[in-house]
Fold this sequence. Notes:
The protein is α/β, with parallel strands linked by helices. It has helices at residues 2-17, 67-70, 83-91, and strands at residues 30-36, 46-49, 54-61, 72-77, 107-114, 119-125, 131-136, 148-153.
Amino acid sequence: MENRHLSAFLLFALAAAAPLPAAAAPDNGKTIVITASDMLKFSVTQIEVQRGQTVRIQLKNIGTMPKDVMGHNWILLKAGSDVTAYATTALSAKGEAYQPKSLADQVLASIPLLGPGQTGEVTFVAPDTPGSYSFLCTFPGHFQAGMRGELRVK
Ligand SMILES: [Cu+2]
C-alpha cells in the first residue's frame, strides 16, 4: 500500500515536472531557419518581424570542419549596441565560447557555438521598438568576413 501511494506520488511529481509542450509559439509566431557553412556565410542575413512577435531562430551548422576551427553561433544584439565592439571583445573570449560575459547585457538572444552537423535554436519575443537589430557570428574572423545580418522590427 505504501508503495502504491509512493508510485502515485512519483507519477504526479513527474507529470508536474514535465516540460511544457515544445515552446508553444502562438499563431503569430515566426520561424526562421538559418544555415551556416564552412564558407563563413549565414544563409539568411535579413529577417523581418513584427514588434512583439514570437520569433524562433534555428541555426544549422551544415559545414564539416571541426568546431574548434569553424564553429558558428548566432548572437542578436539590443538596439544601440556597437556590433563591431562586441565582435572585437568576443575575439578574446574563447573561454566563454566567444560570448563575452562582460557584454551579456547587450545580447537580446543567442544560440551558442555549434560544431559541424549541429543545430541550435532560440525563441524570443521581438522588441516593441521598431528598428534594426544586428546579429552576428562571433567565432574569430567570421563577423569580420561578413557573418552578420540584420533583424528588422516593423
Ligand atoms: Cu561563424
